[in-house]
Amino acid sequence: MRTRNTDKQDLVKETAISLLAKEGFEGFSMNKLAKACGISVATLYIYYADKDDLIKQIGVEMGREFFGSALKDFKPDMPFAEGLRLQWKNRLNYGTKNLLSVKCWEAIRHSPHNEYVLQNSYGQFKETLTLFRENAIKRGELTEMPFEVFWSIAYGPLYTLMRFQQEKKSLGDRPFKLTPEMTEAAFEAVIKALTPTK
Question: Model confidence over 173-196: pLDDT tens digits?
Fold first, then answer.
């Protein structure tokens, strides 16, 4: 039986992330991956049972890294505006520093393995943010609304700005560069939309 080579496995993971980011789930194959790594397809099967196993393993690892970074210095009992601001900061920092990983994550999120990856990577993250939201509602800092509506308002503007930044253009192919002032303006609009009216 052939043994695992840690350096080679790291190369396989990095190359798989790059290929998934560029080709998407449908365009990705073990043959393309082996060729890009300069190894035989048989070598890939030392590390992964098949394409699905590879994507699941990489997806779970990436999910844990992303969700862990989102919770950096975060506590569920933080005041709502302070906690949401930190969530924005952590997500923006991760997205800016890990462009390929973010693109790969999107490809995996739109694959048949989305549910598996989420169920095996975001447990603590989900629990912490659920408690954060519930605490904010109890303190009267957040309007009660369906979770999906809350999530769309709380994070939709941030992810739209991040996508513009990643593509370096906004609607109509207008050149775009995300500034702290834009981020702050969007954040203030979100807080205003989510805060109960007195």
Answer: 999 999 999 999 999 999 999 999
